[in-house]
Design brief:
Strand content: 35-45%
Number of strands: 7
Strand order of the largest sheet: 3-2-5-6
Keywords: Signal
Protein name: DUF2141 domain-containing protein
CATH topology: Immunoglobulin-like
CATH architecture: Sandwich
Helix content: 10-25%
InterPro entries: DUF2141
Number of helices: 2
Distance between the termini: 77 Å
Number of domains: 1
Radius of gyration: 20 Å
Pfam family, one: DUF2141
Length: 135
């Protein structure tokens, strides 16, 4: 009887571990509009900013002012933040002014839900300085 209980416990542990190893993933296709300059790169990240190592990142060259599409693969299912900016000067960071206001076009959405399979979202970059009337 003890052997049977141990076997049952061992099987439960193996099943749980198997589920943990096979986390569901999705693909996120981001269509970005509002590109005003055909230069630099589009930097896209999805996930929880408090855990950068678990975030999914991608970089796409901006070669036209038409919509730019970026595909993130193997994105864990569930909710996370979507962070996008156009790195116009190609220095791999979102440039900000002395008041920490972004000076490069950007977009941020704190809660995006990813399901298994293909997920599509269409966004528009925002020029914060222009929106505030300070540009």
């Amino acid at each position: 009887m003890k052997t049977l209980k141990r076997l049952g416990a061992a099987m439960a542990i193996c099943m749980f571990a198997g589920c943990m190893c096979y986390a569901q993933k999705g693909t996120l296709i981001v269509s970005v509009k509002g590109v005003k300059e055909a230069k630099g790169n589009l930097m896209v990240a999805f996930g929880d900013q408090s855990n950068p190592k678990q975030m999914v990142y991608s970089m796409v060259p901006v070669t036209s002012t038409n919509a730019v599409t970026c595909t993130l693969k193997d994105v864990p299912t569930g909710s996370g933040g979507l962070y996008v900016y156009q790195d116009v000067n190609d220095n791999h960071q979102l440039d900000k002014d002395e008041n920490q206001i972004p000076v490069e076009p950007c977009y941020q959405k704190e809660k995006v839900t990813i399901k298994e399979g293909e997920n599509k979202i269409e966004i528009k970059l925002i020029d914060v300085k222009e929106m505030m009337g300070t540009k």
